[in-house]
Each structure stands twice: as C-alpha cells, then as structure tokens.
Write a structure and sequence with these properties.
Chain lengths: 127, 323
C-alpha cells in the first residue's frame, strides 16, 4: 500500500498540500480538458477541420492528444500509478501501449487500402 | 563446500512473501486483469477505427446522430454525453476520496464516498440506457437502397433534416404485422415501419421541397442531391428504415450501429458490474469487515477497477462522439 503520496503534478509546477487537495485539483484539470473538447466539438473551427497532419484533421489530433492527457492523469493520480514503483508502472503502461500501437498501425493501413479499392471502382457499392 | 552455504538473504528472496513490485498479490492481480481488459477494449476500438477508415467517406457524423437531451426538445449535440462524462469522472473522484479515507481508517467517510460513487455509477448506467433507447427509436427515418445505402431527407428551403412524418403521403393499404401467433407457427416478420415505401415515395414526388441527402461526406458535410437527382435516385429505394437495430439503421453505415451497441454496451456492462462490486464492498465497509482486517485495501482494489471503467469511457467518448 502506498501511504506516501507524491503531491506535485505538471512536473512539479503545481504542488498540493494534501492528497485530497491533489484529487480536487486533478478533477478541475480533467473538467477543463473535457470542456475544451466539447466546445471544440460543437464549434468545429474551420481552421482546424480543413488543415491536415499525416492525413488526419488537426481537430482530431487535438481530441486524441487531449484524450491521452486525460488518460495520463486518471492513471497517474486516480489509479495512483504515480506512487507505485517505476518497474510496476512501466510494465503496466508500456505493454499495452506497444501492442495497441502495433494493432492500430496495421489495421488502419489495411483499412485505408480497402477504402482505396472501393473508391477506385473495382467494387460497385453505391447503388 | 563453501559455495552451497545458504545465506539469510537468499532465504528471503525465495522463501515467499516477497513483493518486488511493491504491490500486494490482490492488487497485482487487479492490474493483470485491467491490462488484459484494456487490450480487449483496444481491440474493439481498433476494429471500429478499421471499419471507419474503410468507409471514411460515408461514415455517419456523430454530431448529427446524438443530438438529444432528456426532457428537452431541439438540437443539442454532445451536451448529454459531456454530462455523462462529467458524472463518471466525478464518481471516480469520490472513489479516490474513499480510498484516501480508507488509508486513514476513517470508516464513516469511506461509507459516504462509496455511496456517492455508487450513485454516480447508477446515473451513468441510466443515462446510457436512455441514450440507447433514443438511438434505437430513431428520429427522422430514412430509406434504404438496393445496395444497402441510406438516403435521408432534407428540406430544400431551410436545409433542415426532414422526418418521414413531415411529408409522407397516406395511401390506404392493408399492412399487417406478421406475428408469431399468425400463420406458420413460430415465424414472424420484421415489425412494419410507420410508413410504407410507397407512401414515402409518393410524399417525395408530391412535395417539391424534399431533397435526398446521401451518405457521402464532402468537406465535413453530407451531400444533398438536387431535385432531379432526388427523383432519379428514388428508383433505387427498397425499404423504409426507422431507428436502429443490428441489421440496419437510419443513420448510415450499418457497422456504425453495430459498433455503437457493441462498444458502449460492453462498457455499460463494465459500469454495471462495477456498481455491483462497489455495492458489495460498500456493505462490507458498513459491516466493519475492513475495520477488523486493519486495512481498506479492498476499497483500493475495487477503486482501480472503477477508475479503469472511467478511463475506457474517456476513449469511447473521443472515438465515438468527438472525432
């Protein structure tokens, strides 16, 4: 059991006095991130939906990055990975990241190929 | 021989009771479960991404599908899901507070925080049930073509979506639901939609302001056909589709509804089992089980599971509703 908590977040930029305080601080941060996501999702600024990076809209990149940020704080502070031994933390975090990154890479490439087959008219689908 | 002498340290290493990762057996097993469950969810979400990239030009736009808020009429994309997300994060917070109170052996505080966590979970599951019901019931209705494409309807004057009831003609005909109790025993037909295909087609022909909207997305918007194209497209129509099931849905790609049911359903089942487990731990806390045991590690373990459910929702929220 991890009785001693590490109380600083944002790489030590923000240090809380107690664990309870840190929990509320993280909640405020997560709420802010969610609000930003929802506002962007409703407004859909044209500058972000019509510019692309690596074939994906900038807006979608922002959503995915903010999601990973949220996931980080949920895992690190709510699931208190921050207080665990680094060996435990690494084996929990890097195993899925490696496998999932591989799976996403392989599936999305394959899907894009199938999309091109449909688009280039080798198969009739729109009738 | 000197080299075979067993030293005290070696006995500690191999004698059991060692915790090289600083986590107890139960907590380790919870992490094992969470990592494997995370891989299961990743598999689902990656499969969703696969299908979506495959049909990237025709995939439904989530903002146009999930626009409802209970007790309100109108077009509110995402507000309700944002609320659900907040409820789940909030219940995660009360869970951490319960774990924190458990470390300090404050029984009453643990009880109250666990109670709030359970309430939050119940609100979330209820909201998800409502979301499903709205999704299944549908809103506007659409027609399906020979090739399985979905055609929706738009008002040419306002550009707003039109529901079938706004323009469908009334043609008296005999349409009877084929139920199990009639005809050949134990055979039944699909439930009939509110309007027959002929009524919808006649409605489109007689109302000059009705245009067809196809599945194809160009620059973030679905393509709307001209009046001539609309009338020409009508000859492909085969079926009236209202709402969603596992075979077809009025929102567009069939796989969209399948993945919606499967992924949010699997997540909802996790939340439900989380609430049940939370209840068990809650009563154990009240009975003083952990007070007698001297530590509240069970609360911590069930807390890990609860946060994991929250973590998964963060991803489902992004990939189903935002992106």
């Amino acid at each position: 059991m991890a009785h001693d908590h590490k109380l600083e977040i944002f790489r030590g930029l923000l240090k809380f006095k107690s664990n309870t305080q840190k929990i509320w601080g993280v909640l405020i941060f997560l709420t802010l991130v969610t609000i930003v996501e929802v506002v962007l999702g409703i407004l859909k600024p044209v500058s972000l939906t019509h510019s692309y990076f690596l074939g994906m809209k900038i807006l979608n990149w922002i959503f995915i990055i903010l999601t990973l940020v949220k996931a980080y704080y949920i895992a690190w502070d709510f699931m208190h990975l921050r207080d665990e031994k680094s060996s435990l933390r690494r084996s929990i975090v890097w195993t899925p990241i490696f496998l999932v990154a591989y799976l996403i890479f392989i599936l999305l490439f394959e899907a894009d190929y199938i999309y091109q087959v449909y688009r280039d008219g080798f198969i009739k689908w729109n009738f | 021989m000197d080299s075979t002498v067993t030293t005290g340290t070696e006995e500690n290493v191999w004698g059991g009771g060692n915790q090289p990762l600083g986590a107890s057996y139960g907590k380790m097993m919870m992490w094992f479960f969470i990592v494997s469950d995370a891989l299961t969810f990743s598999g689902f979400l990656a499969a969703y991404g696969f299908s979506r990239f495959k049909f990237i030009e025709t995939w439904p736009i989530a903002d146009e599908v999930f626009t409802h808020v209970p007790f309100f009429h109108g077009n509110f994309p995402m507000y309700y899901v944002a609320f659900m997300t907040f409820v789940l994060i909030m219940s995660s917070v009360t869970m951490v507070l319960a774990v924190d109170a458990g470390h300090k052996l404050q029984k009453t505080k643990v009880i109250w925080y666990m109670f709030l966590t359970i309430i939050g979970g119940a609100i979330f599951v209820g909201s998800q049930a409502w979301e499903w019901a709205t999704f299944i019931k549908g809103d506007y209705g659409a027609i399906e073509t020979k090739g399985g494409r979905i055609l929706q309807f738009v008002d040419a004057n306002s550009g707003e979506r039109m529901a079938l009831r706004d323009f469908a003609a009334t043609i008296p005909s005999e349409r009877v639901d084929h139920e199990k109790k009639n005809g050949v025993w134990y055979y039944e037909g699909e439930a009939l939609p509110s309007y027959s295909l002929n009524e919808v087609l006649a409605g489109v022909k007689s109302n000059s302001n009705v245009l067809i909207r196809t599945e194809k997305v160009v620059e973030g918007h679905k393509t709307v056909l001209s009046r001539e194209e609309t009338l020409a497209k009508l000859k492909d129509a085969r079926l009236v589709v209202e709402g969603a099931n596992l075979v077809r849905n009025e929102y567009g790609s069939r796989l969209f509804a399948d993945f919606f049911f499967f992924i949010t359903g699997f997540h909802g089942f996790h939340v439900f089992s989380g609430v049940v487990i939370n209840c068990i731990i809650f009563f154990n806390v009240i009975l003083g089980t952990y007070e007698r045991r001297g530590h509240y590690e069970m609360v911590e373990k069930v807390g890990l599971y609860w946060h994991f459910v929250d973590l998964v929702w963060v991803f489902v929220f992004t990939f189903f509703y935002l992106v």
